[in-house]
Design goal:
- This protein has 30 helices and 16 strands.
- The strands form three sheets. The chain has a seven-stranded parallel β-sheet with strand order 3-4-2-5-6-1-7, with helices on both faces.
- The protein has five domains: about 240 residues, Rossmann fold (3-Layer(aba) Sandwich), CATH 3.40.50.300; about 160 residues, Rossmann fold (3-Layer(aba) Sandwich), CATH 3.40.50; about 40 residues, no CATH class; about 90 residues, no CATH class; about 80 residues, no CATH class.
- It has about 800 residues and is of the alpha/beta class.
- The longest helix is centred in the C-terminal third of the chain and has 49 residues.
- It holds the Pfam family DEAD.
- Its EC number is 3.6.4.13.
- InterPro entries: DEAD/DEAH_box_helicase_dom, Helicase_ATP-bd, Helicase_C-like, P-loop_NTPase, RNA-helicase_DEAD-box_CS, RNA_helicase_DEAD_Q_motif, SPB4-like_CTE.
Length: about 800
């Protein structure tokens, strides 16, 4: 290939005169090789080694360096037809060397056509899984190391931009269907008009319903004139599939049709009948008994793989554990396959993503914990062991309802399996441990619920209903074996009667719901144990809304056990139906039940709630509107006063009241009387307003006159010294009352005869804080020093101070 391995020396450069001679020798070698290929007798081919085949020197050297010498049965029959350019349908047992049966013809046909980088893409190899594509690419690198072709691996999980830059220079591409179609649609520089060969490994899987549309789109891009090779352990012969791929008179090459079985003879195949709730117990007991083995366990879904892996990893069986499913990142998947290939003792939990074509060295056991969907899937699964004539063992776990149908399908494919029993002494139950772990670890409990739903879904979508009977499975016991407190409700279990239930009358649905509620009430009244109360707890702060849907699947608009409203964050979903009543308990209802009368009932009579309908009605705000008094439609005039809407009456009613002239006269008289009454009221209101204004004006004038002229009357008037007076005079003053202090004197003065208001001087401001008259300052001083006299001398001193 284009990459030169370490330790390999580059060929010496040729001189200009030697180049034409080299080209001439290569042309002669290619012509001789083409002649030898044409001379092959495909019907009487007795080639047993690669050296006896007409192969080019680079291919022969690559096979020898990779230690491939002897041809297998499928290679003996398929390689000569492929070298001659025929289309091939190849079917052979797993581990029989189908990869080399199409890689060797790919290299040889491109070599004989003198393919270069300038010629573009020459061969396209499609694989259903990334792991198988990687394995094919590694084998291609080994046997094509001496060729000058450029090869590429195009799978998902890598940068599309990096692949796009190198895609135009590739001669051979190994890819998965989805990624290849993406490049065909989006990469402008990718040209496939000159394609010579199309190879489909595991063709039956590629052309089934999962890849049918993708493969059809890829084939539309490819040229019609090409060679097509299809290889698988279980090959299809459908005319429709062959027509879709544009095969031209294909040669059907089969190795195991004449054999007694489609599986290797060195494979020991057994099955055990175990109820669904005991599968994990049996698997745990098996792992504990085979700690020094290399085991591959198949399950039906990635969620089951993750749950079983996490549970067993916590319990530590004593053997290294790995898990592989399609939802992992590409780097993690590649790392896990490399680890499992390199290890001697380990257990890999996987889905059918590794069921086809992968070559894991020295696998001792293949355990199928879940029943395969058909006999072909069974053959591919057990093909991971007993490869290349080595020994291997396979065990199939069957539920009692699956035994008869699956054995019949295997018998039709000439696959003989023998029934074995589990030794009860070595059987261990891990049910209590799982329940304990799920209770302590909410995330583990969540994984268990997802695993339960995915398993039930996988059984529900199976086509062969003779094998997979969902109604007969003990789902409650199965959920308990996973450590769950109860089986999650699953919407799709309604099945075909979902539409009939939707269109059924409410009475029929409510009657069935009533029976369920009666059963639930009886279960609630039963005594609860410590473990029952333990598993009724909910972890409300851990999971998102979709977790609440797994716990309970109530009707729309109701709050479930987790406190969430079903469909809370769903797009275009109903949060709460207005016709539904609130919770009867009233715990989450801030709205109190008003004591409103029923329709047609005396309001004073006591309210009797004798049915659930009335109870719900009193809890519903919308339904309460029926019991409330309906209002009247009002209109408002220009002044904002409300009036009832005037409605026109019928002509018959108008004529009953008399002729129009008399009604007009009555109307005018009534309106005139109404206007006169309104006029009198308006005049009285106007006179009241005028009288009130006049009284207010007189009160203001009276207050102003009293403030200007002081009243003469009994009582003393105190004239304090002011500027312009040489002394102060007190007339008829009560000296004893005055001597008691300013407070008493001021009270007498203000209460009996208010003092005259003094005009402000020109030097005084409004506040009066900064400039004050000498009289005011002296008065302040007198007020401070004035006190009640105790002796006659004190009285004389005070009097002389006031008079002087």
């Amino acid at each position: 290939m284009a990459d030169m391995p370490a330790g390999q020396q580059k060929p010496p450069k040729l001189k200009p005169q030697q180049r034409p001679l080299k080209r001439k020798r290569e042309d002669e070698d290619v012509d001789s090789l083409n002649q030898r290929v044409q001379d092959i007798n495909v019907k009487e081919n007795e080639c047993d080694t690669f050296a006896s085949l007409p192969l080019s020197q680079p291919t022969a050297s690559g096979l020898e360096a990779s230690h491939f010498k002897t041809l297998t049965d499928i290679q003996k029959k398929a390689v000569p037809y492929a070298l001659k350019g025929s289309d091939i349908l190849g079917a052979a047992k797993t581990g029989s060397g189908k990869t080399l049966a199409f890689l060797v013809p790919v290299l040889e046909n491109l070599y004989r056509k003198r393919w270069t980088e300038l010629d573009g893409l020459g061969a396209l190899i499609l694989s259903p899984t990334r792991e198988l594509a990687i394995q094919i690419f590694e084998v291609l690198r080994k046997i094509g190391r001496y060729h000058k072709f450029s090869a590429g691996l195009v799978i998902g999980g890598k940068s599309l931009h990096e692949e796009r830059e190198r895609l135009g220079r590739m001669n051979i591409l190994v890819c998965t269907p989805g990624r290849m179609l993406q490049h065909m649609d989006q990469t402008a520089a990718f040209e496939i008009d000159n394609l010579q060969m199309l190879v489909l490994d595991e063709a039956d899987r590629i052309m089934d319903m999962g890849f049918q549309s993708t493969v059809d789109a890829i084939v539309e891009h490819l040229p019609k004139e090409r060679q097509t090779l299809l290889f698988s352990a279980t090959q299809t012969k459908k005319v429709s599939d062959l027509a879709r791929l544009s095969l031209r008179d294909p040669e059907y090459v089969s190795v195991h049709e004449a054999a007694s079985s489609a599986t290797p003879s060195t494979l020991q195949q057994n099955y055990i009948v175990t109820p669904l709730p005991e599968k994990l117990d049996t698997l745990w007991s098996f792992l504990r008994s085979n700690l020094k083995s290399k085991i591959l366990v198949f399950l039906s879904s990635g969620k089951q793989v993750r749950f079983v892996y996490e549970v067993f990893r916590h319990m530590q069986p004593g053997i290294p554990l790995l898990h592989l499913h399609g939802r992992q990142k590409q780097t993690a998947r590649l790392d896990i396959t490399n680890k499992f290939s390199a290890t001697k003792n380990s257990c890999l939990f996987a889905t059918d993503v590794v069921a086809r074509g992968l070559d894991f060295p020295a696998v001792d056991w293949v355990i199928q914990l879940d029943c395969p969907e058909d006999a072909d899937t069974y053959i591919h699964r057990v093909g991971r062991t007993a490869r290349y004539e080595r020994d291997g063992r396979a065990v199939l776990f069957l539920e009692p309802s699956e035994e008869e149908g699956m054995l019949k399908r295997l018998e039709q494919r000439k696959v003989a399996v023998e029934k074995i029993n589990v030794r009860q002494k070595k059987q261990q139950s891990i049910k209590n441990q799982l329940q304990n772990m799920c209770f302590k670890d909410p995330e583990l409990k969540y994984l268990g619920q997802k695993a339960f739903v995915s398993y039930v879904r996988s059984i529900h979508i199976q086509k062969d209903k003779e094998i997979f009977k969902l109604n007969g499975l003990p789902l409650e016991e199965f959920s308990a074996s996973l450590g769950l407190p109860g089986a999650p409700k699953i919407k799709f279990l309604k099945g075909d009667n979902a539409k009939s239930l939707k269109n059924a009358p409410r009475q029929a649905v409510s009657s069935s719901e009533g029976e369920d509620s009666d059963r639930e009430a009886k279960a609630k009244n039963a005594p609860k144990t410590k473990y029952d109360r333990m598993f009724e707890r909910r972890n409300q702060d851990v999971f998102a809304d979709h977790y609440a849907k797994l716990i309970t699947d109530e009707t729309d608009g109701k709050v479930n056990d987790m406190g969430y409203v079903d469909g809370e964050n769903d797009f275009l979903s109903v949060k709460r139906r207005l016709s539904d009543a609130s919770s009867i308990d009233g715990e989450d209802n801030d709205f109190k039940v008003p004591q409103l009368p029923d329709e047609g009932r005396d309001a004073k009579a006591p309210l009797v709630v004798d049915s659930r309908r009335k109870e719900k009605l009193l809890k519903s705000k919308k339904k309460l509107l029926k019991l409330k008094e309906k209002g009247k439609k009002l209109v408002f005039d220009s002044e904002g006063n409300p009036h009832e809407v005037y409605e026109l009456e019928d002509e018959a009613q108008f004529k009953q009241r008399g002729p129009a002239s008399s009604q007009q006269a009555k109307f005018l008289a009534a309106e005139q009387e109404r206007l006169q009454t309104a006029d009198l009221a308006d005049k009285q209101a106007a006179r009241a307003k005028k009288k009130e204004k006049r009284e207010k004006r007189k009160a203001r004038e009276r207050d102003a006159a009293e403030s200007e002229e002081p009243d003469e009357g009994a009582g003393a008037v105190l004239l304090l010294p002011d500027e312009g007076f040489e002394g102060g005079v007190i007339e008829d003053a009560d000296f004893d009352a005055f001597a008691e202090g300013d407070a008493v004197a001021e009270e007498n003065v203000t209460s009996e005869a208010p003092a005259k208001k003094r005009r402000k001087k020109w030097f005084e401001d409004d506040s009066g804080d900064e400039t004050k008259s000498k009289h005011q300052k002296r008065r302040k001083h007198d007020e401070k020093v004035m006190h009640e006299p105790e002796t006659l001398e004190d009285l004389e001193t005070m009097a002389s101070g006031l008079l002087g």
